[in-house]
């Protein structure tokens, strides 16, 4: 029976979603199948037009490529060309209620910002290529692309039938890789198929692309990503990401609306970063989106002949979704080529990779809960900021390293938690808090 789920010459793999998860999978599947001498077909299905500006060509993402992902891509012979990179980042600036904290890169490895499509709606950018278009061009020579979306999936004997949207074309494949995000309707359809899939929980974010002259961006942001921990209600994380001629403002929280965005942009610590007299009300007319981000993992994300990867399965909490897409895509491709596409094969091999991400997110929830408590408390926020500033004058800066890894996602949440709850860090904070309370009582 297991032979029915083995990859062989002539096998057809349907990949639904041509974003990073789908294209990374296609890249690795082609590589591993060739190494084993297997001639199999990849059918890549997605209706997005990545060569267009605005929503039709964009997969709605802040567009930060971490140094971890850049290193992983280079190790796989995938190199970012200059017309994809919008900016290389020098560091992060963390704004809290009490202090402004510069955090410099710890290594020489690059952090890059990109657009996911050809740029915002109405932009005049001509020479750029979006990150998703770059990856699609990379795999285009060895995939059969169908530019529609999948509206129905049926499990038939020894195959899976995919029905597309506009033409109602029915495509038979031996296995399907679900590589769409949570902004697609497909995860809802998977829940109806009866094998127990439950999509990740999520909530809305909001992003807006603000045009500014290039000289203003260079002068005011100086190749830093600005992040804000200023205690605004229901706002877990906020960032301003510099690109060429645009700033991407990204808010993550609960019940985020355009009014939330205006309130954030009008905050004194944010407003001072923009040119004097800049009209904040214009933000209502700019290119914006409200993508869903996962805050949990999927249940039963695979069965015989089907596996979900990327956001449809699991992703690091609030960080590096593109790297999670890379990790899960490579793992799924290797298992399908080496072991096949049975539920048993995915459980014995692929789930080991996803379980590491899932377990690490439990530590991430603790960290972000602690961050929320600190950011909403003036005294704790001031203590944390002052300790981090003081460290920068010393040889050892454990708290600065923790904040860097929290912002960039360059270390596992488990490792960050161990360092944060280390005796010395906690002792410093308690000692500082004690003397602050004494001084307030005088």
Structure characterization notes:
- It is a single chain.
- With 442 residues, this protein is of the alpha+beta class.
- The chain is built from 13 helices and 20 strands.
- The strands form 4 sheets. Strands 5, 6, 13, 14, 15, 16, 17 and 18 form an 8-stranded mixed β-sheet that branches. A 6-stranded mixed β-sheet has the order 8-2-1-12-20-19, covered by helices on one side. A 3-stranded antiparallel β-sheet has the order 3-7-4.
- Helix 8 runs antiparallel to helix 9 and helix 10 packs across helix 13.
- The N and C termini lie far apart (79 Å).
- The C terminus is likely disordered.
What's the short story on this structure?
With 442 residues, the chain is an alpha+beta fold. The chain has helices at 20-35, 67-75, 131-139, 186-191, 214-221, 258-265, 268-271, 321-338, 343-375, 378-391, 398-408, 413-420, 423-441; strands spanning 12-16, 41-45, 64-65, 87-88, 91-96, 100-104, 112-113, 144-146, 150-156, 159-164, 170-173, 175-178, 202-211, 224-229, 235-242, 246-253, 288-289, 292-294, 302-303, 306-308.
């Amino acid at each position: 029976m297991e032979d029915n789920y083995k990859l062989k010459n002539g096998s057809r793999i349907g990949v639904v979603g041509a974003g990073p998860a789908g294209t990374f999978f296609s890249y690795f599947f082609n590589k591993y199948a060739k190494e084993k001498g297997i001639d199999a077909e990849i059918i890549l299905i997605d209706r997005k037009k990545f060569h267009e500006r605005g929503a039709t060509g964009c997969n709605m993402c802040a567009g930060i490529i971490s140094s971890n992902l850049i290193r992983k891509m280079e190790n796989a012979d995938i190199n970012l060309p200059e017309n994809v990179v919008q900016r290389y980042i020098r560091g992060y600036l963390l704004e809290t209620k009490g202090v402004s904290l510069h955090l410099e890169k710890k290594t020489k490895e690059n952090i890059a910002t990109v657009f996911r499509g050809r740029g915002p709606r109405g932009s005049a950018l001509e020479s750029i290529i979006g990150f998703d278009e770059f990856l699609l061009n990379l795999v285009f020579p060895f995939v059969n692309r169908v530019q529609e979306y999948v509206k129905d999936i049926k499990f038939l004997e020894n195959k899976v039938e995919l029905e597309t949207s506009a033409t109602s074309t029915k495509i038979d494949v031996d296995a399907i890789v679900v590589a769409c995000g949570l902004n697609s309707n497909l995860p809802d359809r998977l829940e109806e198929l009866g094998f127990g899939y439950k999509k990740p929980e999520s909530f809305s974010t909001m992003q807006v692309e603000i045009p500014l002259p290039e000289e203003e961006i260079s002068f005011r942001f100086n190749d830093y990503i600005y992040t804000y921990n200023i205690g605004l209600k229901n706002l877990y994380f906020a960032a301003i990401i510099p690109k060429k001629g645009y700033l991407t403002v990204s808010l993550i929280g609960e019940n985020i609306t355009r009014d939330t965005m205006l309130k954030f942009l009008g905050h004194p610590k944010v407003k001072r970063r923009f040119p004097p007299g800049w009209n904040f009300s214009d933000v209502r007319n700019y290119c914006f989106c409200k993508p869903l981000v996962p805050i949990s993992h999927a249940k039963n994300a695979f069965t015989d002949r089907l596996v979900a990867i990327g956001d449809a399965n699991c992703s690091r909490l609030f960080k590096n979704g593109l790297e999670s897409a890379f990790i899960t895509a490579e793992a799924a491709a290797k298992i399908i080529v080496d072991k096949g596409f049975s539920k048993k094969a995915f459980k014995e091999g692929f789930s080991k990779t996803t379980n590491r991400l899932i377990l690490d997110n439990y530590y991430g929830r603790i960290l972000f809960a602690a961050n929320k408590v600190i950011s909403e408390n003036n005294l704790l926020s001031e203590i944390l900021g002052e300790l981090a500033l003081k460290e920068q004058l010393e040889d050892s800066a454990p708290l600065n390293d923790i904040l860097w890894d929290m912002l960039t996602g360059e270390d596992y949440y488990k490792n960050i938690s161990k360092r944060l709850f280390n005796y010395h860090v906690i002792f410093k904070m308690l000692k500082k808090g004690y003397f602050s309370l004494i001084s307030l009582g005088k």
